[in-house]
Backbone:
């Protein structure tokens, strides 16, 4: 039996024990493992792989609740227009866009980890450096035309 908390005998204080990943985190890791398995099993031309990856991303977007789906569809369209060389792919069960196999940016639905907003995130591969500190994730509740222009500019800058 594994205790959920422990007491230090000398100090008399109690501390929470680390109980591992949450169910949502475990589910995301399982999705990632399945994605890797599917990718390894696929054979064919680059065009076939890209088409299959695009279908997988669009299928994942279609499964999202309406509010997240609308945002994800717009993000997908913006990224495809702003950086057509980025390849869509699933990354931990989320729509992502990669260059040379490395994820540059991704969309995380609010539902994914039961958050109150969706997120557009950028990896360390994104060329968004601005001094010693810059944002790498953006909360999304809705998209205005100005927001879409800003995202397009961010994606273009991220590609470098």
Residues:
């Amino acid at each position: 039996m594994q205790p959920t908390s422990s007491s230090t005998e000398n100090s008399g204080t109690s501390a929470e024990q680390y109980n591992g990943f949450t169910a949502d985190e475990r589910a995301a890791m399982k999705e990632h493992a399945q994605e890797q398995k599917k990718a390894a099993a696929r054979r064919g031309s680059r065009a076939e792989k890209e088409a299959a990856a695009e279908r997988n991303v669009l299928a994942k977007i279609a499964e999202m609740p309406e509010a997240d789906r609308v945002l994800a569809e717009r993000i997908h369209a913006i990224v495809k227009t702003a950086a057509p060389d980025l390849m869509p792919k699933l990354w931990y069960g989320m729509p992502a866009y990669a260059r040379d196999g490395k994820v540059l940016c991704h969309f995380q639905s609010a539902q994914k980890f039961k958050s109150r907003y969706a997120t557009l995130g950028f990896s360390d591969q994104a060329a968004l450096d601005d001094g010693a500190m810059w944002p790498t994730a953006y909360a999304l509740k809705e998209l205005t035309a100005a927001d879409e222009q800003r995202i397009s500019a961010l994606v273009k800058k991220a590609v470098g």
Remarks:
- The mean pLDDT is 89.
- The chain is about 40% helix and 20% strand.
- Residues 128 and 158 are 5 Å apart (CA to CA).
- The longest strand covers residues 102-108.
